[in-house]
Amino acid sequence: MEQELWLNLPVKDLEKSRAFFTSLGFEPTRDAPRMIGFEIGKVPVMMVEEAQLQLYTQHKVSDTTKGSEFLISVSAPNRAYVDEITNKIKDAGGSVYSEPQEIQGWMYGMAMVDLDGHRWNIIYMDWDKMPNE
Question: Which residue, 19, 33, 112, 124, is the most exposed by fewest CB within 10 angstroms?
């Protein structure tokens, strides 16, 4: 049986989320009532209005100003991409909480908070430099 995994993220304003993620270079792939889909890192990500997501989950949406449920990680093709998207994030109103930097000698990445408080990191991994432990 073939299955697909996708993420459903609550958002306060669909049009602001559309503008934010589109400005980062991600194209909307699906529009549906009260949601917008993007493919990010080969994973479908649905931005769903908070009230609609609460109906689906039958559960309150978490307050992202008080905690995180998970970190969304997206691979980068190279270091330049990490630098470029960092600037795009800032220009689009996102908040970078970790500037681009070397990580453990084989990764280069940054981390940001989107308009709805979801935490993301963009990481370039140089597998040839990964230490053998």
Answer: 33
